[in-house]
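Work Package 3 (structural annotation) set out to generate three-dimensional models for the target panel prioritized at the project kickoff. During this period the team completed the workflow that converts sequence records into discrete structure tokens, so that structures can be stored uniformly alongside our sequence database. As a representative example, we reproduce one entry of 287 residues exactly as it appears in the project archive.
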Amino acid sequence: MSSDGYEVRPVEATGAELAATRALFGAAFPTATHLDERTLDWQYNENPDGKAVGFNAWAGGELAAHYVTLRLKLLLQGREVPGLLSLNTATHPKHQGRGLFTRLAEATYRRAAEAGFAGVVGVANAASTPGFVRKLGFQLVAPLEARLGMGPVARHVAEPAYEFRRVWSRDALAWRLRHPHGNYRFVADSRGVRVEAPTGRYGIWAVMAVCEPGLGRELSAGRGPLNPMKVWLGLDGGVDWERSRYFTMPRALRPSPLNLIFRRLASEGPRLRAEAVRFEAIDFDAY
């Protein structure tokens, strides 16, 4: 235990620890009812890419702060490498203002670098982005685009040479679509199977991704009524917006401004260029 009374330990995601984590989220974010023990178990233990990587800060028997990243595969500047998605963080109101989040994040990144992970990607809101950039050394890649429209999302005939995108295996995709609170539907698309999710606004669904035929074979296309209005959230230099019936979403309708952030862990390298990134709603915990 450190001199300030906190013991920092790796996340184990056992039943008792998940219950303590759920209680912490309840204290820190009373309205975040979706972060129940079933969802945490799904995120931390069932991911086919491996168990979650993160740290807890304990004050005696009380969980004071928590930070977790989820494992994933990345295509990073021509190489497929192991990476992490920065996801869940919380500090109990009684323990805020003591630098616990930064301490847990740095402990996570040290352990991840030692294990050979290439980098950490995350989506941060306007309030949390400065902390990630200034205190933790993340690159602010770009704000995510938020578009509203209808029909398919058209793509350029020749896609860019992506410097960064998430790589989905069949098993990982199946796991992602088993989200305990997910309510997905699958619609036939000219390029494969389009995955959509409700946004919480009546009649508007989000385009999560279009799965290539090889990955989408297990999905049942054509389920459910088709709503004309769609939301697309992400970054993708391969989308041809001039041929898509989508426009920039008005601020009154869009979610809180979100930024794509990235930090290298295992080696140095050039900064990511937003125009060479593919990152869409299915790639993070958007819906």
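The longest strand covers residues 62-76.
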